[in-house]
User: Which sequence fits this backbone?
């Protein structure tokens, strides 16, 4: 940097070559990246499916099991309801998919629930949708990792006691990967996703084949049932409760509509087709699993997942195919958690950019990722895993309620949008921050589709909230409004600040009087350096000495007459041996009497130690003064350093 | 405070009426006291004995038991050595008492080991004596409280598992009492001390009577022996080991010589007589107990103290007299700890006053006591109690070695003093900081007495160090030199600082150039206020903006042309999105090129939150800058506050 600030008057620019220092951080997360290096690449449908489907497809690993678990409360006779309930959930899946397909075409720039709600419903629904999604991403990490670990401990029961430690380590590992910056190169996603789809389709297909040929047995050595014994009859409440648990299958279905910009042109078309593919695969696998666990008499258990039971029944033991399926399932679950690590920081940066979260969330770290968001997500989800002991069954009641809230708000926003669209003339347009609204001939059909989607998801959310309330849904029902309140408080703070700092009607101030107060503990080179500095600031300098020991003060008085350069010295007697309080009282009086545009500056000589431990040998008066005043208006505190 | 600093030129004095705020602290330790209220009262011999004897007399509670414990390693036949060893210890006690009687007359102003060694032997021996005494006061608290709790748990075995908690609570209780300021009103001390002496003398007297009349039995239901089984023969090492343990009886004997100024005139005479009374009582009780525990077959045990065994044998069970003795013993032990709470802070203030400990140790708190010393003592002794599980037997090997080191140095100092005194002519005098040396006719006798005392205590110390080395004495043998090294490092720091700050050859400086750098994140009322302030400091103002987002920087540039008052703006491009580092590089360059007497001031606009949580919504740039530079010479950092 070659600037001599003396010669240049005006605006000077300079490029700093300063790189962050190489520390343990650069070892862990990699060398810093230049802002100009931000990646920019698009993907096709096949890769797109792999990138965005892991969250949605991974829910097949636990959705059927959670339905089973609830039904088991009514005894083995109720287990026959798994398949009909799964069919109901798939119907819902179709409705939501069609709704989102419309969103994809309307928001080619990315149509997450936050953006759609903000454009069409206003700030409160948008913040609500955002809060719901943010909590949901946290739960995606907790549930996916817990379920992934459950798959692993099903195959290796010896690891079961360490499941919380394993799960937290995985979260931290994914955190580091994301802090390094994930190159979403497609192939890294494609291989495990298609591997999972392949092994799962094979398992279901072989299972059906054996079922139809009558060679499918039941689970050998079934694990112990984790729930209570049969304690209830098959009631509508129980069925709705089971249905609610199964709706976790729908989580992740919105991922494509958030990430449309990643697709090759024609973006919306490609993204839409990918969404349909994804939903079809998801529905097929989910229905297949839900069907097959009936005949094999699978048992819901913490010790062994239903997927593991299915696989070892279909493949007659824990062979290579069994291990391939368990491995594939564990990996896709971990990738689902990884998806949340991509989405949470982006959404929180969006909130922060709109002023609803701390501005710092919009800063990109040394690796061009939103480091603060990544770390927040890892911390909170690890906490959840620890609190809920990595149990999918205990985490599920918190999950999905946020998803359905955001589904509902997003679809309602879309319906509102079609309404607006229908009332525009041809050629007219409304420019929203997220997209442009034009007239659409088929607006009535589209409004009905999205409106129906909104209604269905709203009903599901209410059912979920009621049936799962005491299992943990109440936490989310309290948390979301609390978060929304916090978001609005933050927003109010930034808005007020911007208004107060605005330069409208700004007139340059002049300082009418600048009083400078120098604190003098003793008369020595250090305090006289501070006096010299103080006298360079203003003509109006007063030195203040707090007298605790009269003999010491007498010395100060005598020396001041010699070295004080004729300046004023005020000696404050402190009968209670206090140091900071008399100074604060004195300065408080000055401030109370100050005129507008008058400034008081307090200069504190500050000893600079050569060794850290030397700090313990000196009073930290400046520090205490700073805490005492905590930045009063019109008061500036300056430490003038002196060094030995 | 009614000062208007505008009108007054010259030196102004003002008495601040500001009192410390009433908080939970004033509830706990009492209202603050005025410096002028420092107490000033003297006491007579009877009260003096009570005030100063608790430490010395309380050691009768454990000294005999510790001898017994070591001898028990050689089996029950060795227990007969308790009394002869006690006789040897009492001989030592006589020698030390006579030595100290001479000190009392030579140092009417108070003759602690630190002062005597400082006056006569120099700084290194004085600091060594001081370090030894300070560690010893800490051990006095730990041992006395542990022994006091052991007496209580002997009477109430149900409390035994809670002995560490009880002991630590007692230390904290005594700490609070001392932070309030102990009015050493004499009677508060006299009643329990004389109660202890009365009950202990009665116990010993009744014991002897019953022994002589043949009616003294042996301990009924003796507790379990805590040591190992008989594993050694009676060797000289074992006897010396047992002797070392018993020397803990001498601790506290120096107390009167430290506190001579508390006595009524003729001070030295009164103090000397009190010392002789104290030693006589101590010797009598110690010998009596050591004798009686033989015939009653007392067993050394962690579960029941020897005192408790003696009392219930003498009084045939746990009646009122038994409880009176146990209670009296527990109380005098707690008072002994309290003595250390009086001595430790005074001695550490003495060290601090001479510049060997942090100056803050000389400050008196709101209640006119050396609060920092009191808190330090409580903290360290509590730690010891926790580490050694409140076991007297495990603490004893650390104890007494410091006492004997300080005895030895103190007596050597006295010997040196008599030597000087003998070589003075009549009427001549040497004025030392602690006392005045004049000619003394009997200097040879006195030199021999103190010299013999020094030699004896030195030998005992060496014996102690060797026999107890691996039991824990090594800790003290390492600790004392370490402490002395720390004391001298602190002293060197203060001396260097004073030299560097000295005003010898001081010439008033003038600042040749004052560069001011203002950090600008955005152009708004806050940053323009900082600019106005900066322009009031110097003509040479440069504003610096770090560019992370080009669009943001473009706005800053445009606004600066309007509002920048024609000042220079430097835009630092930061390709790695760093905020603080480019500024540090820029300022580092300025500092590198600065001339002598040139000062660089960095002005940082600082947002002042109305609520604490608002801090999280802003960058703490000034704070990071401050840490980054950690007070470089010639650099002043100023936060100019702006508030909403």
Assistant:
């Amino acid at each position: 940097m070659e600037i001599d600030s003396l010669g240049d008057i005006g605006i000077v620019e300079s490029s700093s070559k300063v790189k962050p220092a190489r520390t343990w951080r650069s070892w862990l997360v990699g060398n810093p990246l230049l802002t100009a290096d931000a990646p920019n690449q698009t993907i096709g449908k096949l890769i797109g499916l792999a990138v965005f489907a892991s969250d949605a497809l991974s829910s097949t690993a636990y959705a059927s099991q959670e339905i089973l678990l609830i039904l088991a409360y009514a005894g083995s006779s109720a287990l026959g309801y798994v398949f009909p309930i799964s069919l109901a959930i798939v119907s819902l899946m179709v409705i939501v998919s069609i709704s989102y397909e419309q969103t994809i075409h309307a928001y080619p720039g990315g149509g997450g629930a936050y953006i759609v709600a903000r454009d069409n419903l206003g700030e409160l629904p948008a913040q609500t949708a955002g809060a719901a999604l943010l909590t949901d991403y946290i739960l995606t990490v907790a549930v996916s990792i817990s379920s992934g670990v459950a798959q692993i401990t099903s195959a290796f029961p010896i690891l079961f006691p360490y499941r919380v430690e394993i799960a937290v380590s995985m979260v931290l590992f994914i955190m580091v990967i994301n802090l390094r910056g994930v190159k979403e190169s497609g192939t890294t996603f494609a291989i495990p996703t298609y591997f999972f789809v392949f092994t799962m389709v094979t398992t279901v297909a072989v299972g059906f084949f054996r079922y139809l040929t009558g060679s499918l047995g039941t689970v050998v050595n079934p694990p112990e049932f984790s729930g209570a014994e049969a304690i209830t009859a098959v009631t509508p409440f129980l069925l709705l409760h089971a249905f609610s648990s199964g709706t976790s299958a729908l989580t992740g279905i919105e991922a494509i509509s958030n990430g449309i910009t990643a697709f090759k042109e024609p973006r919306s078309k490609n993204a839409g087709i990918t969404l349909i593919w994804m939903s079809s695969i998801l529905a097929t696998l989910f229905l297949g699993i839900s069907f097959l666990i009936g005949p094999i008499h699978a048992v819901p258990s913490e010790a062994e997942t239903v997927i593991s039971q299915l696989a070892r029944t279909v493949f007659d033991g824990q062979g290579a195919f069994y291990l391939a399926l368990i491995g594939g399932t564990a990996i896709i679950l971990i990738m689902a958690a990884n998806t949340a690590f991509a989405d949470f920081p982006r959404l929180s940066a969006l909130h922060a950019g709109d002023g609803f979260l701390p501005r710092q969330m919009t800063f990109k770290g040394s690796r061009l990722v939103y480091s603060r968001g990544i770390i927040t997500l890892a911390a909170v989800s690890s906490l959840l895993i620890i609190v809920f002991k990595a149990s999918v069954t205990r985490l599920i009641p918190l999950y999905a309620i946020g998803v359905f809230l955001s589904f509902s708000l997003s679809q309602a926003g879309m319906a509102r949008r079609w309404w607006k669209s229908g009332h525009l003339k041809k050629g007219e347009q409304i420019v929203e921050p997220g997209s442009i609204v034009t007239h659409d001939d088929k607006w009535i059909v589209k409004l009905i589709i999205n409106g129906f989607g909104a209604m269905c998801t709203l009903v599901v959310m209410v059912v979920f909230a009621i049936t799962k309330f005491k299992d943990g849904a109440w936490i989310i029902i309290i948390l979301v409004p609390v978060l929304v309140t916090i978001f609005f408080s933050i927003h109010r703070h930034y808005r007020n600040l911007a208004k107060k700092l605005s330069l409208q009607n700004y007139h340059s101030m002049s300082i009418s009087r600048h009083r400078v107060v120098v604190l003098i503990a003793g008369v020595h080179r250090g305090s006289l350096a501070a006096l010299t500095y103080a006298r360079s600031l203003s003509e109006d300098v007063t030195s203040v000495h707090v007298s605790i020991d009269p003999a010491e003060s007498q010395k100060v008085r005598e020396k001041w007459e010699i070295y004080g350069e004729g300046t004023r010295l005020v000696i404050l007697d402190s009968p209670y041996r206090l140091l900071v309080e008399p100074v604060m009282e004195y300065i408080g009086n000055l401030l109370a009497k100050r005129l507008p545009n008058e400034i008081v500056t307090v200069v504190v000589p500050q000893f600079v130690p050569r060794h850290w431990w030397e700090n313990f040998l000196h009073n930290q008066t400046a520090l205490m003064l700073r805490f005492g005043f905590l930045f009063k208006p019109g008061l500036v505190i300056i430490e003038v350093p002196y060094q030995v």
Observations:
- Chain A touches chain B through 109 residues (CB under 8 Å).
- Chain A has two domains: 64-489, 513-643.
- Chain A has a mean pLDDT of 84.
